[in-house]
Write a structure and sequence with these properties.
- The chain is of the alpha+beta class and 95 residues long.
- It folds into two domains: 32 residues; 56 residues, no CATH class.
- The chain starts with a strand and ends with a helix.
Amino acid sequence: MKKVTWEDDNGKLRVSLIRNDDSDDFAKFGIPIEIPDISDILEEAKVELHNQLIERELYSFDDLQSGSLTAAINVSIRNKIVQKYRELKKVMEEV
């Protein structure tokens, strides 16, 4: 089996497993390898990131030089994505 990366009709990159002798054109019919669904995280993160930027007083470009932007993103988005991967790992271990 080989992994093939391909782009779906919505412009998202996807990865599928197909047989070694199959053409890469068959990737969309292969066994999908997916990341956790993060759409709910990104939706709720809009408000949370906004609030983090305000709480950290990041109002202008110059304010970003403090390094607090990365911390605001980590609190709002990164940590939640890591949690989704942990949940996926737990599910896969149970299978």
